[in-house]
Amino acid sequence: MKMDKTKKRKIYLDYAATTPVDPEVQKAMRPYFSRDFGNASSLHHFGQKAKEALEQSRDVIAKTIGAESEEIIFTSSATESANLALKGITFANRDKGNHIIISSIEHDCVLNTALWLKKQGFEITQIPVDKYGLVDPKEVEKAVKKETVLVSVIWANNEIGTIQPIAEIGKICRKNNVYFHTDAAQAFGKVPINVVGTDVDLLTASAHKIYGPKGAAFLFVRKGVNIDPILHGGGQEFGLRSSTENLPAIVGFAKATEITSREMKSENKRLLKLQDWIITQLLKKVPDSYLNGHSEKRVPNITNLRFAFVEGESIMMELDWYGIAVSTGSACSSPKLEPSHVLLALGLRPEEIHGSIRISLGRWTTKEEVDYLIEVLPKVVSKLRKISPFAS
Amino acid sequence: MYSADVLKHFKNPHNMGKVKNPDGIGKVGNIVCGDVMWLYIKVGKSTSRRKKGKEIITDVKFETFGCTAAIATSSMITDLAKGKTFEEALKINKQEITDSLGGLPPIKVHCSILASDALVEAIYDYLSKNKKPVSKELEKRHLRIKKEKEIIEERYKEWVGKQQEIVEKD
């Protein structure tokens, strides 16, 4: 019964959506649920023990990106960090101006925050990308004006993996005296990040993308940046994020950061090899298939491919039947039935976007799993093309 | 989120492909998410006692570009339409299709409208090609579907063209 055997396989190729928690991370978190459970704001020894773990975690993360400890603000998610960056900067700097610039391939957490700010009376400029998803720093420079207070560009895009020229964009922002935020949720742990020598003023990263738990993230806020909190209360996190700190998750985040930065170089090399193998094999085996995004300036774990004449949700569901989990930018799978704004920004037509899927690799992806995908996917596409009126 | 029956029809769709020398073709597209469905029918006279002499759909096949729900509803409508008189076939609505599939996620219900539209179009195509009477109701449904189809065809121009080339080469 070969069919039963294939049905039982479980292959996760959606690491860009979220990652499993590393066992080492789980172990580090465990004491902070029931034993060292104190509130880091309490002065008694329960609280002080928690405070110590909190600050140690902050130090680990700060050191990893070359920041000072007071520049790391813990939050609950990358979405919260991006909200804090955009709302916090615009509201604190209203006397300077009301204009913000974002790229046209931002994650929804930046895009929708910017669109909300527009409703509050702020002016938003969305700068275009080329067909590989790259932002041209000159376009940023052109868009900057006297009233601009913030530029936000995603470091590595979550759908196509394209890595942006963050250093160049940062220089332009610094020269023009404009704050620069980057959403590094997909870049953190895959791209070397050092805020010394990179003109980034605010940076968002999240634990659950790097084998840490859900519910912990940070916003790097460079010293001297004028920013308002969006959560008001007890004044935790240097007054920028009131809320009792989620200590187990933060400790897990620090441990996950430690492991990830320790292994980044060798892991990137390994994943890049697997990714190249996937791209060359699938483009060869499936006629009318294409790579979305940049062929070189990309993170090693995100591959976005499109297959003409078929629809991405059906590819995803077919693959799921074989036990393989991927995701798609097709309108049919989105709650609003709209095609991905990122793929639209590349200049792709909606019908091309419908046939796009994202394959994202991670720490536990093996060559054998990738080979299984390469064996199954061409069959799936060919089966769906047999049903499609556009392919014969 | 999908019912077991939807997944069953998606995985092993019934009546997929083309009918040889079809008597009617229904080509429809749904503007909401870009699904496209082509339905082919073959028409014959019934030999059963009840429907004796009446025209019925003797064979029906589909080709669909779309999501899981679009493929499953395509498969289901072919099952439901086979052996039916036109009068019976035109009564198949989205409710019957979704019920037969054990339900559809609310956001996917439009796929079942696409399936019944394709059938309407195939029947209309047959009747008008053979200069047979078309009811007012059917004419109205056809005009609405036609308008939606024009919007879709504009979007898929390049691919429809490619399909045409391939067919001509054969």
Describe the structure.
- Chain B: One of its GO terms (molecular function) is iron ion binding.
- Chain B: Pfam families: NifU_N.
- Chain B: One of its GO terms (biological process) is iron-sulfur cluster assembly.
- Chain B: Residues 1-132 form the NIF system FeS cluster assembly NifU N-terminal domain.
- The complex is a heterodimer of chains A (392) and B (170).
- Chain A has 392 residues and is of the alpha/beta class.
- Chain A is 41% helix and 14% strand.
- Chain A is built from 13 helices and 13 strands.
- Chain A has helices at 2-8, 23-29, 31-34, 45-64, 78-92, 108-119, 137-143, 166-175, 247-285, 312-321, 341-345, 350-353, 367-387; strands at residues 11-12, 72-75, 99-103, 123-127, 148-152, 179-183, 202-206, 217-221, 289-292, 302-307, 324-325, 327-328, 356-360.
- In chain A, helix 10 (312-321) crosses helix 13 (367-387).
- Chain A is globular.
- The mean pLDDT of chain A is 95.
- In chain B, a hairpin with a 6-residue loop joins strand 1 (24-29) and strand 2 (36-45).
- The interface between A and B is medium-sized, with 27 and 35 residues.
Search tags:
heterodimer, A: 392 residues, alpha/beta, Aspartate Aminotransferase, domain 1, Aspartate Aminotransferase, domain 2, 7-stranded mixed beta sheet, B: 170 residues, alpha+beta, Sufe protein. Chain: A, 7 helices, globular
Class computed from helices, strands and strand pairing of chain A: alpha/beta
Distance between the termini of chain A: 31 Å
Total DSSP helices of chain B = 7
Distinct helical segment count of chain A: 13
CATH-wise, what's the superfamily of the largest domain in chain A?
Answer: Type I PLP-dependent aspartate aminotransferase-like (Major domain)
Order of helices and strands of chain B: HEEEHHHHHH
**Total separate domains of chain A:** 2
The radius of gyration of chain B is: 16 Å
Mean pLDDT of chain B: 88
Largest sheet of chain A: 7 strands, mixed
Order of helices and strands of chain A: HEHHHEHEHEHEHEEEHEEHEEHHEH
CATH topology of chain B, by name, is Sufe protein. Chain: A
CATH architecture of the largest domain in chain A: 3-Layer(aba) Sandwich
Report the top-level CATH class of chain B.
Alpha Beta
**CATH topology annotation of the largest domain in chain A:** Aspartate Aminotransferase, domain 2
Termini gap of chain B: 41 Å
Please mark out the parts of chain A with pLDDT under 50 across 5 or more consecutive residues, or reply none. none
Total count of strands of chain B: 3
Mean pLDDT score of chain A? 95
Q: Give the spatial strand order of the biggest sheet of chain A.
A: 2-8-7-6-5-3-4
InterPro entries (chain B): NIF_FeS_clus_asmbl_NifU_N
Pfam family, one (chain B): NifU_N
Protein name (chain B): Iron-sulfur cluster assembly scaffold protein
GO molecular function, one term (chain B): iron ion binding
